[in-house]
Each structure stands twice: as C-alpha cells, then as structure tokens.
Amino acid sequence: MKTESQKGWMLGIVTAVAASLCCITPVLALISGVGGIAATFSWLEPARPYLVGITIAALGFAWYQKLKPRNQADVECDCEEEEGKTNFWQSKTFLGIITVFAVATLTFPAYSHVFYPKSDKQVVIVKDTALKTVDFSIAGMTCTSCEEHVKHAVNELEGVLESSANYKEGTASVKFDDSKITVDKLTEAINATGYKVEKYEIQNSASVVKTSSVFQAASVNKIELLVKGMTCSGCEEHIKHAVNELDGVIEASASYKDGKAVISYDASKTSPKKIKEAINGTGYKVVEPN
Question: pTM (2 decimals)?
Fold first, then answer.
C-alpha cells in the first residue's frame, strides 16, 4: 500500500515533468533527430505555472508526511516493517533524490540551450585559387553522432571553412582554404577519430563561401516570420538549428516572446519557401499573413 508521502512525490514527479515537457521535447527532438515532435507539447505552456504550483505543493506534502511527529498509532502500525530495517523507497534519502530531480526538471527551460550546438558566426572571404572543396568517402560511420565527431575533428583545424557529413552515404564534404591546410591534414584528422577515409575527390569552389551558416554575398535577403508554438529559449534554439542547416542561410534569430524568427539568406542558394518548410518541419508553424 502506498503511503501518503509516496502519493505526494509521485504526483510531484508527474507534474514536474509535465511543467517542462514543452522545453524537454525540443531537446529530445534534436538528440533523436525527430524534428517533427518538437512542438508536440507546446500546448502545455499556459498550464506551466499551475503545474509548478502543484509540484511544489505535492512535494511539500510528501515532506510534511515524512517529517511530521508520529503518534502512537503510527508507531504501532509501522513497528512490524521497521524492526531494524529501513525501506529505501520510503526513506528521506529517496525523497531527497526525488526532490532534486523535480527541481532540475522544473528549471530545465533555464538551461535547455546548453544541449544545442554552438553556431558562432564569422564571414570568410577566400581567393578563387585558394578555396577548395574535398568530398571524402568514409568507412565506419553508423549514426549522427559519428557525423558530429567527424565534423568536430575537421572544424578544429585552421583553414576549414565548412564541413558536413552523412553517415548513411558514408561521406563527408569539407570546404577549406588550401593556403592554410592540406587534404592530407584533413585526412589525418578524420582517420584519428577512428573512422577511415577510403578515397576523396577535390573540386574548386566559389570565391565567397559560408562559415557556420554565414555568407558574404551580393544576393543577401532578410525575411521575418511569425512562428506559432515557441514557448522557451529551447524552442528558439531548435528553430535556429533547423534553419542554419539549410545551405544559403547567413544568420538566424528567433524570439519565443515575440513569436518571430528573422533569417538572413543568400537568395541564390535558398528561398523563403525552403526556410518555412524547415521551420514547419520542427513542429512549430509559420503563420502566413492574411
């Protein structure tokens, strides 16, 4: 039979998770690669203050039941169970762990941004003769984490302007300034991760390129979109991440308070339609003007 204290912390955990589910889900979407689930629980945001209140009340009640002085009837009822043994699941230690977990869950929206990759912006202009792109065939990649590991390895090198990887195709593409780094160095960096370069092909690139989704180009446009469903900073980061994955996006910003996203892009490489599709693909929705 569940005690009153157990009922209290169980309710507290459920409401704590529910209170932050609208911000937990985008992170899970990013980690899992299922972008369409990001806004699934955004409808819970208006109820968040009430859920937080219920969590605090439920855990407060659980602690009250645990710490209140026991009368003689309680002592006699518990004597058979206690007899020198303490049930961990009914202990103060376990309730303390539950309380810490609930607090971490309730405050998740405040630190959810740390789960998103940094996207420091920098404009890089390279001469025609120095800018190259190399396409690698790589053995050993089996998931998106493998992709990130390969990209991180080459992005640490000076002269690398942009990198991408695809574990399904077993490929990686790196744009680089060959006056600062060579293909052999790039190959060494990839091989050092444990994945192996099987072959590569070098091609020339345009003289102006993007680095971390930033361009210097003659055809730069800016679009401001109304976005429905954002409820926290985690939602903002999820939208920015999705848009920055598009080839041609220069810079992206989002504000859940204003319900807006502002994107600068190279009109020769992408379009408002593709940007809207990327945002809608996260589960949040672009609101079209009447």
Answer: 0.54
